[in-house]
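Bench notes, bay 3.
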Amino acid sequence: MRVKQLSVFLENRKGSLAAMAQLLGGSGINMLALSIAETDNFGICRLIVSNAEEGVRILRAAGYTVRITEVLVVCVPDRPNGLAEVLRMMEHEDISVEYLYSFVRNSGYNALIIFRLSDIGRAERLCEEKGVKTLSKDEVEAL
């Protein structure tokens, strides 16, 4: 199950993340997961939100540069080697991990990892074949 992720270009200056978060929140958009990769001058904020299309519309209207990408949200056993096993599974199928980040919701005994992969379709099928649970945006929101 693929999930839409927003990637937002932010200036690396005081208050820019707060302004974006306030804009989304003030419009009724809930941020479900968030990651930031930064350099000296800018950052890329990657986030899963309650309504991706509306989030993009709101952000673009406010002048932000935004891109939507598809990612997989994978339930990884929260124990030693849980993540390593999923990564090895991808490696054996020659699927590259472009990036990943984790987030916390009420997931029981699983860590929730967001994967951006070189071949999301094959990765999705592989997870299904191997019994690795993936979550939809609605399932993430319900946790």
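Next record in the batch:
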Amino acid sequence: MTVTSVPTMRELVDSAARVLAEAGVGSPRHDALELAAYALGLPRLDLVMSPLVPEGFIETFAGLVDRRRLREPLQHIVGYTVFRYLTLRVEPGVFVPRPESELVAQAAIDEAIRLAAEGREPLVVDLCCGAGGIALSVDTEVPESRVVAVDASPAAVALTAHNNGAVGSLTMRIEQGDVRDLGLLADLAGLVDIVVSNPPYIPPDAVPIDPEVRDHDPDLALYGGGLDGLAVPHAVLATAVRLLKPGGLFVMEHAEVQAETVRALVDATGVFAPATTGDDLTGRPRMAIARKKAKGQGS
């Protein structure tokens, strides 16, 4: 009589990591561990003290690994992602927050902290909020702030509202709106301390290489319009000009190759002090930062 041995959890994870690596997944072992934890119903899996393999696990795990092998985003499979200190629900049809945007949020947070330390209540607007990562980071890390989150996508607005209910302060104002609408947030014109945005900015001929982005993130959240991809960012900038009070801060993510062009767009408005470029977590120039001039302030 032959006894078939059941593989250990470590062996299953090792095997899954090899499969994902062969499929070109960028973080195969991390993803294998995340999928195993998800299949077990655990927040994380420690292989030093790994559990026994329960009945039905192998089949469930194999199905999850196969989905990831076909380059379905890990975040869509498990239904969440971590952005800064928050665990956010993510769904197909809404842009998945990326770690590269965490320093965009940091720039807004630092300014909000500065204003709060002066006894003020920072008013922060996140344009093109997606799943709400930037807006909710400001909301939770600077509780003195008032945050307004806006997106053109009904699905993104609904997801931000869900995440606000799950991890936010519940004080955030969430609206569906298009940054190209000249009447967007008209009641806040000239009153906002910080406008922050991670808008769509990819040019039409720069289709993302990664299948997770190309095949799963919505076009509305990727392609910025116009030959250079900067139609929507230009509208974000125009909205910021209208909303920001004198001395208010503008922070906007862009592609690495767009840094010089975006600085020129900001400077061309004539209402900001000279724009600077900030780096993302990988050290690439990925955000424009500019402060609106005080009344009477020259160039």
